[in-house]
Amino acid sequence: MTKLPASQVRKDFAEALNKVAYQHERIVLHRRGKDVAALVPIEDLELLERLEDQLDIEAADKALADPQNQTRIAWEQVKAKLGL
User: Which runs of E-coded beta strand occur in 1-84?
Assistant: First the structure.
């Protein structure tokens, strides 16, 4: 993984983008010594999104299996609670 100042990536964006897209490099951008963002190949982003989806599904399955969540709540109550 490469770490570069954000200012350098701004100047050489096309080069950084090519490294990420074609060489599958991950580039961490930092500003004033602090990591602030990352450029990652699209495959990495897609994997991250699949992992997040899987975690969401597992959390939903767990919530649905909880007997306390079996009671139906009227839509009007939900909207009122959310201030809609």
Answer: 2-5, 27-31, 34-39
